[in-house]
Amino acid sequence: MRFQIPQFIEVEDKIFGPFTFKQFVYLAGGVGIVFVLYRALPLLLSIFLIVPVVLFSLGLAFYKINDRPFILVVEASFKHFLRNKLYTWKKGAGTKKQTVVTHSTETSALVPHLSESKLKDISWSLDVHDSIYAGQEKRRPNDVE
Fold it and tell me: Which residues of the chain have pLDDT under 50?
């Protein structure tokens, strides 16, 4: 038994002529708002309000930013401007981090002692250990020279 696998699921269906349902709703809403503004206000004042409404409805219907619909950008900007923002900053003591250089007894490489975190110390020592032994052949414990 064969099943058909849906393809092109990211492309919206054209329902109203060359427009998708969302595009049609944005354009119809823009036309409705333009009609109300034209009938309710004097012509000179309505033109100043009609132009932004037309541009916004065209942007919602057709404009994409980074292959994402314009409505998502508008939604993100509203969330950014309407939400509370709390930025905190703590001034440090003004001392710089100091590194102490010690001489390792196992190898002849200089290993600075970093006191920030144990994980950084371990990763740094592994990097140094790998770079020291990278040029040498790997020897098995039972090999004799």
Answer: 103-104, 114, 145
